């Protein structure tokens, strides 16, 4: 990689080399080349000053003789160890002798180093001698040694940094003209200051050099920008330096722009970062993958998907391939936006490019699919991780457990939880709380409390969320007093009731039918100084909507607006569901239109409520129009959408459409519900499509779902007529188990 040192407006190329202290070579300044001739100093502007002439202390006659003897001895007997050659002179040797001898041997670099090593073992060289060796090392292109020597100087014990710094700079400038005249020495010193965190001192040194017409190299200035950017407090300073240094003659490059683009994005100034990206082409600094990826990540964090996709396209047009950082950012954004299918497409593209996704990417996608309720797709990725030799961590396991709990599949969730232990992974508070919440929601409070005890025994402390989940579960079962006792225990442990706790209690009371107590609790919240939020009001509105009390629900909405609380899409979904359940479809359509006019994007649940009611009324034309409008607005159908549509089309005897939707949902990883299977099977029977009905019935059985008595009778008759007595008896046993035994069991409970 080529770069340049700037001197009096002229640019001189130089090449990178390695340096010490583990600093990456790509960040080290290019430190090769000689400086300008004396004539260039003479032609400099009147604003710059020449470097001082070097005039060391004059030796006495005796000193001159000693220096001459030492110089001749080490030159003539260079094959012998210096400790033997110079043994006779050790007692008379002083720091000044070191400088005078160096003047005689300065052009023999190996001899200079050997002599310097011999001298500093006997007497610590003075600052001037130290700077002279640094100058000689740089002039000999030994930048690593120069770097080490400067670092060694700062490593001295009990060193007054501020005092020594000014003296070092003074001696470095004083010895420059005679001993090296190579400006890269200033780059090395600038680096050491920056690496040591002396950023203010580095800036002062930069300004001081301008007085002599010297500008620090771009690569060293990039190192300075990077170190400024390491601290969030100094990000604005890095941007200020970026704007100021060109006036001093620094020519920034692509790396410089990338550093500032990153600083702007970290400050949330993504548009400015994007503007700089566009300006890079005009500056002659072609943006690279890092430039684009940083801006893309900035827009991802801001949630601006359209700009992200446009930048990716622009990147590809320039022949730049996204890297793992680019893909990770986009996948995370798409998952956050609920566009998990799109995120998986980027995962496949990423893998086609030969980039292996890491645990974070897979976990993000797994979590995304779980949140959509698509557990099958999540498990597929989970298995793929293992095929790729990527070991799932406890976060990936927690995501799967959370998804299973959301779907009410507690047996599978418990199985995954135990698998974690078998793999040596320790669940944390989130994992335990997720499983506890799942058991609470399914009404299995005994298992929930058992897990709570296991959590405590393992040394983990239940938090507010854990107690809230337990209290919520108790409220749903109507055990209000037990829930209150639990909350008192929580307070005794120093945990504060928060808005989430109250909202869970309100939700639990509403779910158990105690709406009056829920309203009373909301009043108690206010007395405790905890103001109800949008979730509190939405929860109560949902209860009123489900009981058909739309007037009370509307009154709560008005109170919520009067308090300055903003309704969410969930609030409107609650109202939509209420209108639909009450048969007020026109009001539901008006609400949908109002939401779109106000820029409130309906989600899948909004559309599902309307479609379900249209299907119930056997209005499939209206249902299809709503479905098309939903897809046109980029709202992706979920498992519930497909099940609603399939049952609707089956009821309307549109079996071709129902079959097509079934195939489509399976391809997307969604599962049919038992009622959807039953609708499809009966629909095909009515159309005399026995083969399709049989295929679905077998698929349903493989999924562990039970059909109804009518369907069992269909297939019992068919198998009996076909002479398949073994299958007929098997179906008979299955039907008895599913209906008679379960009915007896339910009566006992």
Descriptive account of the structure:
The chain is mostly helical and 749 residues long. It has a domain at 1-217. 69% of the residues lie in helices and 2% in strands. The chain has a three-stranded antiparallel β-sheet. Strand 1 (2-7) and strand 2 form a beta hairpin. Helix 2 (61-76) packs across helix 4 (95-105) and helix 33 packs parallel to helix 35 (639-651). The longest helix is centred in the C-terminal third of the chain and has 24 residues, at 725-748. The protein is elongated and about 125 Å long. Mean pLDDT is 85; it is low at 1-46 and 743-749.
Structure described in brief:
PPR repeats lie at residues 253-287, 288-322, 323-357, 358-392, 393-427, 428-462, 463-497, 498-532, 533-567, 568-602, 603-637, 638-672, 673-707. The chain is mostly helical and 749 residues long.
Q: What does the overall shape look like?
A: elongated
Q: How many helices in DSSP terms? A: 40
Low-confidence stretches: 1-46, 743-749
- Going across the major beta sheet, what is the strand order? 2-1-3
Radius of gyration: 39 Å
Average predicted local confidence, pLDDT: 85
Number of strands: 3
For the sheet with most strands, the description reads:
3 strands, antiparallel
Strand content: under 5%
| Helical residues, percent | 55-70%
Strand-pairing-aware structural class: mainly alpha
Distance between the termini: 78 Å
């Amino acid at each position: 990689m080529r770069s340049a040192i700037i001197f009096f407006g002229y640019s001189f190329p130089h090449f990178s080399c390695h340096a010490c202290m583990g600093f990456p070579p790509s960040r080290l300044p290019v430190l090769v080349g000689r400086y300008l001739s004396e004539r260039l100093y003479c032609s400099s502007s009147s604003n710059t000053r020449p470097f001082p002439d070097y005039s060391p202390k004059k030796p006495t006659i005796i000193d001159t003789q000693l220096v001459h003897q030492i110089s001749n001895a080490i030159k003539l007997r260079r094959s012998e160890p210096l400790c033997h050659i110079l043994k006779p002179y050790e007692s008379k040797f002083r720091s000044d002798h070191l400088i005078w001898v160096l003047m005689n041997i300065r052009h023999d670099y190996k001899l200079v180093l050997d002599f310097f090593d011999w001298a500093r073992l006997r007497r610590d060289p003075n600052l001037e001698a130290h700077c002279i060796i640094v100058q000689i090392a740089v002039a000999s292109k030994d930048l690593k040694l120069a770097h080490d020597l400067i670092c060694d100087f700062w490593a001295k014990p009990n060193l007054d940094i501020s005092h020594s710094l000014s003296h070092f700079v003074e001696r470095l400038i004083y010895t420059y003209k005679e001993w090296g005249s190579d400006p890269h020495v200033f780059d090395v010193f600038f680096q050491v200051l920056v690496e040591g965190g002396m950023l203010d001192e580095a800036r002062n040194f930069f300004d001081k050099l301008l007085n002599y017409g010297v500008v620090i190299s771009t690569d060293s200035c990039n190192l300075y920008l990077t170190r400024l950017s390491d601290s969030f407090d100094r990000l604005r300073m890095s941007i200020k330096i970026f704007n100021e240094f060109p006036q001093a003659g620094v020519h920034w490059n692509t790396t410089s722009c990338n550093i500032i683009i990153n600083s702007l994005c970290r400050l949330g100034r993504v548009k400015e970062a994007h503007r700089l990206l566009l300006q890079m082409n005009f500056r002659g600094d072609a943006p690279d993958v890092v430039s684009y990826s940083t801006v893309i990540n900035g827009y991802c964090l801001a949630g601006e998907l359209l700009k992200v996709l446009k930048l990716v396209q622009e990147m590809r047009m320039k022949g730049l391939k996204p890297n793992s950082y680019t893909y990770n950012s986009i996948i995370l954004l798409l998952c956050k936006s609920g566009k998990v299918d799109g995120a998986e497409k980027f995962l496949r593209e990423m893998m086609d490019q030969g980039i292996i996704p890491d645990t974070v990417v897979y976990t993000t996608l797994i979590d995304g699919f779980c949140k959509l309720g698509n557990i099958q797709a999540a498990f597929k990725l989970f298995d793929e991780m293992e095929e790729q030799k990527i070991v799932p961590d406890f976060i990936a396991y927690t995501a799967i457990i959370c998804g299973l709990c959301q779907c009410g599949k507690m047996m599978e969730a418990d199985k995954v939880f135990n698998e974690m232990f078998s793999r040596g992974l320790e669940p944390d508070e989130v994992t335990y709380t997720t499983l506890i919440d799942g058991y609470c929601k399914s009404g299995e409070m005994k298992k929930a409390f058992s897990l709570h005890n296991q959590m405590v025994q393992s040394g983990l402390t239940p938090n507010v969320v854990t107690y809230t989940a337990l209290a919520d579960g108790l409220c749903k079962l109507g055990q209000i007093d037990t829930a209150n006792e639990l909350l008192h225990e929580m307070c005794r442990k120093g945990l504060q009731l928060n808005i989430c706790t109250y909202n869970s209690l309100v939700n639990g009371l509403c779910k158990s039918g105690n709406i009056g107590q829920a309203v009373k609790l909301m009043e108690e919240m206010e007395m405790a100084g905890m103001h109800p939020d949008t979730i509190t009001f939405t929860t109560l509105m949902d209860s009123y909507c489900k009981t058909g009390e739309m007037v009370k629900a509307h009154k709560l909405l008005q109170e919520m607006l009067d308090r300055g609380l903003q309704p969410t899409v969930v609030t409107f979904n609650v109202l939509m569901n209420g209108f639909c359940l009450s048969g007020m479809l026109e009001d539901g359509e008006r609400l949908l239109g109002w939401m779109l006019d106000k820029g409130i994007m309906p989600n899948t649940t909004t559309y599902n409520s309307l479609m379900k009611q249209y299907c119930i009324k056997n209005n499939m034309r209206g249902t299809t129009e709503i479905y098309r409008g939903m897809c046109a607005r980029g709202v992706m159908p979920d498992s519930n959408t497909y099940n609603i549509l399939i049952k609707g089309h089956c009821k309307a005897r549109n079996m071709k459409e129902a079959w097509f939707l079934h195939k489509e949902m399976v391809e997307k990883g969604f599962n049919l519900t038992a009622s959807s299977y039953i609708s499809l099977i009966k629909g095909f029977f009515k159309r005399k499509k026995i083969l399709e009905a049989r295929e679905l019935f077998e698929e349903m059985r493989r999924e562990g779902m039970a059909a109804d008595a009518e369907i069992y009778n269909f297939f019992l008759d068919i198998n009996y007529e076909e002479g398949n007595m073994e299958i007929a008896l098997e179906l008979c046993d299955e039907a008895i188990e599913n209906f008679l035994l379960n009915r007896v069991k339910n009566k006992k409970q």
